[in-house]
Amino acid sequence: MASDNFAFVDAHHHLWDLSQLHYAWLTDKPFEGHPSGDYSAIKRNYVVSDLKATGAPVNLIKSVHIETADGEGDPVRETAWLQSVADKDGFPNAIIARGELMDANNEQQLDRHLEYANFRGVRMLTFYGPDILNDTAFLRGFEGLRKRDLVFDMDADIAHTDKVLKLAKQFPDVRIILGHCGFPKQRSVEYFHAWCKGMKAISQAPNIACKLSGLLMVDHDWSTGSITPWIEKCIEFFGVERCMFGTNWPLDGLYADYATLVNAYRTIVTDFTVDEKKALFQRSAETWYHI
User: Fold this and answer.
1) 213 and 258 in contact (C-beta within 8 Å)?
2) Which of 33, 50, 68, 98 is the most exposed place for a label (fewest CB within 10 A)?
3) DSSP per residue over 87-132, as a string?
């Protein structure tokens, strides 16, 4: 699906070098119940040269890296490593670090991250842990993001709809980017309707954008047709200026190669205008992540 003027900004991917940082989920105890299933095939280094090689067929021009070094006691170490990679090889262009928003020294940690030019914000894995979105300490930490004009990569699903909306309204000038289409966990008709209701509600907050990514973690026997309804509804609810495509690489690489996935995305939006496609594949990620 070659095109001379097609360019792709990957809004969600990961890199890891097992000799540089501690990735407990890759080297220690496996993540029990991970939606991707058996991920042993990716328990190896995945570095920027791999990203460039896999992204070349779809003209990958920029990328957003999402934290993954869960075994590191100091998340700034991952930011420092990624910045050194970016300085040498040009990717990633935005770094989303592991968030420690509930820690008393959160603001000092954010300032340490900000010593690295490509740092753009944080993610906290709220989805498997306690419900923290209305916790006093979390909200205090969120104020630290607001003061620094940083992104919050939201790991939440439709079960958190009310709390997500409340957070967005409390901090209307913080850019919140909802990961993986709200991470739908099931593929039943009933679940789809419930997911639509929740996503439509979340989309009412203008400071929330949506990443079109991660669908293969649950849909292991995916096809372009099977992921189309989820992507179309996200775009319907959020609009092209608040939607951006990501690959979730290399996790989604367990079930497709990089170019196959990106070209499936392109097929889904074939009938969109040139400008709408540019928003989805490039401009929205550049705008929301300031890259």
Assistant:
1) no
2) 33
3) HHH---SEEEEEP-TTSTTHHHHHHHHTTSTTEEEEEE-TTTS---
> Is 187 within 8 Å of 229 (Cβ atoms)?
no
Q: How many CA atoms within 13 Å lie on the side-chain side of 132?
A: 21
Round the CA-based radius of gyration of the chain to a whole number and report it: 18
Task: Give phi and psi for 244, each to the nearest 5.
Answer: -150, 140
* pLDDT band at residue 128 under the 50/70/90 scheme: low
Q: Quote the DSSP letter at residue 74.
A: S
Q: For residue 188, which amino acid is it?
A: S
pTM above 0.85, yes or no: yes
Find out whether 13 and 65 touch, Cβ atoms under 8 Å: yes
The full set of domain ranges for the chain reads: 8-288
Q: Is the peptide bond before 206 cis (omega within 30 degrees of 0)?
A: no
Q: What is the spatial order of strands in the sheet that 208-212 belongs to?
A: 8-13, 60-66, 94-98, 119-124, 151-154, 176-178, 208-212, 243-245
Which tens digits make up the pLDDT trace of 181-224? Answer: 999 999 999 999 999 999 999 999 999 999 999 999 999 999 99
Closest to 278 in 3D by CA, of 253, 247, 244: 244
